[in-house]
Amino acid sequence: MPWDPTQMPDWQISLEAEKNMPKPEEVPDRLGLEKDEVIPYGRLCRLDYMKILQRLKDRPDGKYIEVTAVTPTPLGEGKTTTTLGLIEGLAKRGKNAGGCIRQPSSAPTFNIKGTAAGGGNALLIPMTEFSLGLTGDINNITNAHNLMMVALTARMQHETNYTDEELAKRGLRRLNIHPKKIEQRWVMDLGAQALRNIVIGLGNEMDGVTMQSGFMVSVASELMAILAMVRDLKDLRESLGRIIVAYDRQGNPITTEDLEVAGAMCAIMRESINPTLCWTAEYQPVMVHAGPFANIAVGQSSIIGDRIGLKLFEYHCTESGFGADIGFEKFVNVKCRHSGLKPNVSVIVATVRSLKMHGGGPAVVPGRPLDEAYTKENLPLLEKGIENLLHHIGIVKKSGVKPVVCINAFPTDTEEEHRLVRRYVEQAGARCAISNHWRYGGDGALELADAVIDACREEVDFKFFYPLEMPFMQRVEVIAREVYGADGVQWLPAAEAKAKVLQEKYPDFYTMMAKTHLSLSHDPNLKGVPKGWTLPIRDVLVFAGAKFLVPLCGEIRLVPGTSSDPAFRRIDVDVETGVVKGLF
């Protein structure tokens, strides 16, 4: 160790690292926990959040480090890899370091993007369990969400077939659910484009009400967003009960409490509130908890995981989805506001590849070879694209948090390219580190670890981008102008009318922007730092359980499609050993 990731795929590196992976019975001594605070689950374990936080409530918090990125290519720029590499690098410097990352969806795992387990020697282990369900959180969310839909559709059928008197005999009251005002869809954790828009209830009267419906990917469920945000089991139960499933014919919301299903949903999710403990390839502890999409939800690992990590570790690293315009903005204005936690440092992950794309490089398409513009030195192209990185540095600095830029080094990068990026970053008043964690693990991340340690010594004048008392529509304007760089906001008439009602009805709900992660704008084709554009808002969704108002900026797909060359074609099991091979 380290292993050579140019010669070994990640799944093989994981198998080698797992040979010395700590066992559940070793966890209490390694993490300073009591035996009853660890819940064994095969060769993994969950951490009992309530017992740990109660016992350690008076222990001072460690340093809080958030990891974000520039506007990524469709391939991703290694945010999880960097999070894990940073933890390994901090440990090499003798620091007690750990973290919390999100659980991956099976949709990208079986498609193109991969497992989100990091990579090379900055890898989460055991990779197979992590990639294929772990301890069941996504399955629990899928079942709880679909139970909500069962409760809704069954109630609609009964109300169609029974009189008020017959309903009363069954202990039910008529809810008068409007079949064209259903707010929720079914979920599954796969990329199934054929299920985005469907018709259900075909057949006879015993087969339900015929109506349009559809699916979304499980991690886009409001239940996943709730799991990321709650502080305890009571909070989870109350949040699940607020979910709006549909509206009645008078326009009143129908909630899970109205359908009398919220308690059963909480019962399904009761164990999911405890984070699962995994490890880096160098055996530092990393919790895995929650996995909400960042372009429709909060895009963060859980508040519970961060609260545990800040008590257990001297340096706790957490990741935010996509670039600073989405993930960091939501981290600051939603997660930190709700949790009361304040970060010390934000690491902005950048690659030479991503900056060349923003400088006008050819399209980066998953599954296709990279153009040689990305594999050979091209300083003019790179220099032009650095503007995108500088914009993200500016976003972080608006919060008062110290930015540290990590150049996630690729084998095709040149020293001149790294020097060029470093010069611009330092001129912008930020620290910059070149990191080779993918290839060398913690030894390759020492420069990054040193930069983060140094930044943590400085005081942070933390501030939100807007006060919560600011009206919802005004908050959207602030985010569009101050974070994305838009000239303003253009509300479609129906969206504007809806927003005016919602900001009066739900003044304390968080603003959860939903837009593409592939551009600072709403248009994924606009790279770099677009100028002279206006942000269109076509609708506003209400996530009453999570307390989110969600402006839709452009087209957002809630179910990713599966490509013509998906990863599942290369995944198999060795029938002699039971080992899963080919994950990534």
From TrEMBL:
Its EC number(s): 6.3.4.3
Single Gene Ontology BP annotation: tetrahydrofolate interconversion
Annotated binding of ATP, by residue: T73, P74, L75, G76, E77, G78, K79, T80
Molecular function as annotated in GO: ATP binding; formate-tetrahydrofolate ligase activity
Pathway: One-carbon metabolism; tetrahydrofolate interconversion
Keywords carried by this UniProt record: ATP-binding, Ligase, Nucleotide-binding, One-carbon metabolism
Family per similarity comment: Belongs to the formate--tetrahydrofolate ligase family.
The protein, known as: Formate--tetrahydrofolate ligase
Record organism: Thermanaeromonas toyohensis ToBE
GN (gene name): fhs
